[in-house]
Description:
Low-confidence stretches: 214-239, 330-337
Number of helices: 17
CATH class of the largest domain: Mainly Alpha
CATH superfamily of the largest domain: Tetratricopeptide repeat domain
Radius of gyration: 26 Å
Mean pLDDT: 78
Number of domains: 2
Shape: globular
Order of helices and strands: HHHHHHHHHHHHEEHHHHH
CATH architecture of the largest domain: Alpha Horseshoe
Strand content: under 5%
Distance between the termini: 56 Å
Number of strands: 2
Amino acid sequence: MDRAEYREKLQSIKDLGRRGKYKDAAEIIEEINWKRVKSASTLTHVGIILGKAGRYDEAREVLLDAYDRAPIGRTSVYWLTEFEIRQAHREDAEAYFREYVEIAPDDSRRYELEYKIKRMNGESVDSRIESLEKLREAEFTEQWSYELAYMYHKAGRSQDCIDLCDKIILYFGEGYYVEKALELKVLYEPLQGVQAEKYEELKLKRDGVTKVRPGDESAYAEILHKDVYIPRVNESATMINTIDLQKEIARNIQQIKEATEKEEVDSTLEGIRQLARDNNIPIPEPTKEDDEKLCEEMNIESAEDIDASLDINFREMIGVEDGGQMSISIPERPTVEEQVPGQLTIGDVLAEWEKTKEAARSTMENARIRKLESAKAVAIARSEDIMDTIADVAKQQEEAEAARE
């Protein structure tokens, strides 16, 4: 492969990665011998894409090569830790995490990883809150601030939850996590002023309705004496190429069906939603509660159902006590002063612990697959709803065209 072909393929890999098409990018990655590539940043980028495509063993190999070429490169170690967490490989994740902290002790992302490891290990909500609070002190971001607000909610710290939601809404103004913060706060108290208006706009957007007030710049506003609500009209509907749009979404739905990671499913669904938004297709913004309701209607497990069953399984398997301590159940043997045939040895204990660890990994993998299948079912249902909406738009366009003729 000459340099021009390599650069072309590398550009395709980057473009597909930016669009969330990790599986397609991974297929091109297979065509290149990465052992000959010396750039640590390129190898890191490729390793991240492979991991996001669910090809963890290949991702680990490439990221370790990147680390060998640049031992102080924090990004490769960050993603090595992240991907081990996703596979619930506790020992490897914690080993890479320690390496990351040593390389980048002042990087705020260490607290993201710390939180994820605690979540993987089933540590208490209070312990997770400690990590998120450190992260908030280091960097105030939408995603992790909302995660902290939600943890406050789970811990029953209502005032802390409300106060943090207020800060998220004030600092960021709009966006996905601002909407989530509004929804979380309204669980505790009625919204007032600007927050109430934002929340009303959010609900109207989800219902596909526009509010028209007397005095607004609208053909109807000048004859109104009070606020009214009308269905949103897509003024540029005739500009939409619905056939090409449906084909593109159909390709994305197929990618969802073939996905091997929940993150890939979520990313592809968001890509479908963005396609609809870019083409002015009116689509609702389903909440977590909407997804849970859809799971009930489809008679499938939600992610929360799976987490609950996983928690029960782990407590039974590992013997998690009320204080969070873990114990392992070992068959009782008589206590004697000296080793005698049949007495429990350290080898017995270690063998039993290895069996427990293997069972735990198997349970985690089973839960991961169940979550993946649940996410696929929900994503496909949401995508098919969007396809139906596009079909309605196409029909409206045909009727409008016929009327003009």
